[in-house]
Amino acid sequence: MYHSWDSQNAWQRQILGSNRLYLNRHTAEKLGINDDDWVWVESHHGKIKGQVRLQTGVNPDTIWTWNAVGKRAGAWNLENDAGEAKKGFLLNHLISELLPEKESGYRYSNSDPVTGQAAWYDLRVKITKAEPGEAEESYPQFDNLTPPANLPKRPAILRYGELFRRNRKAAGPQSGNNS
C-alpha cells in the first residue's frame, strides 16, 4: 500500500490499514520502548508520532518504515476512524524539501538527482517514547474532509467484486457461469 497505488484495495486494507515504525529490539530497550508503544520521531524539520514494532533484524542505528499509508480522515472516502487516518503516518513531515543553504545562498533539492525521489534514506532523527495518557493515534492529525454529497454511502465491510457477483447471480445460468 503506497500513496494511492493500492489504497482502494479492500482486501489489502483489511489486512493492514496502517504502518509501523520498525526499531531494533536492543535500541528500544535502551530507550525504554516496548513493542506496540507510541513514539515521537523528530528531525530538524518536523515531527511525527507512530506505533513501534520491534525487530532484531533492523540496524541498531536505524528506524525503518514504509511511507504513505497515512491518509487524512475523509480522503479516499475513508471513515473518520479508519486505520490509515488514526494510525497511519507519513514521513513527509520529517523531511525538508531543500538542503541547507550554500555560501552562495542557493539551496539544492533534497532528492535523488536521478529519480527525484525524496531523500528519506539519510535523515537523522530523535526517538522518544510518547507519554502515558497521550492519544494513541498518529501525528499530525488534520480536520476530517467531508465527502461530496453525491458519493455513495461507504460500505461497512469492503468486499471487492460483491456487486459483480450479485449481478452475475441475478442473471442466472445464462450468464456463462459454468461453475
Descriptive overview:
The chain has 179 residues and is of the alpha+beta class. The protein has helices at 10-15, 25-31, 83-86, 162-171; strands at 21-24, 38-42, 47-55, 63-64, 126-129. The protein has a single domain, classed as Barwin-like endoglucanases (Beta Barrel). Strands 4-1-3-2-5 form a 5-stranded mixed sheet. The two termini are 33 Å apart. The relative contact order is 0.19.
Brief sketch in words of this structure:
This protein has 179 residues and is α+β, with helices and mostly antiparallel strands. The protein has helices at residues 10-15, 25-31, 83-86, 162-171, and strands at residues 21-24, 38-42, 47-55, 63-64, 126-129.
Features:
179 residues; alpha+beta; Barwin-like endoglucanases; five-stranded mixed β-sheet; 5 strands
Write the layout of secondary structure elements.
Blueprint lengths: L9 H6 L5 E4 H7 L6 E5 L4 E9 L7 E2 L18 H4 L39 E4 L32 H10 L8
Parallel strand pairs: 1-3
Antiparallel strand pairs: 1-4, 2-3, 2-5
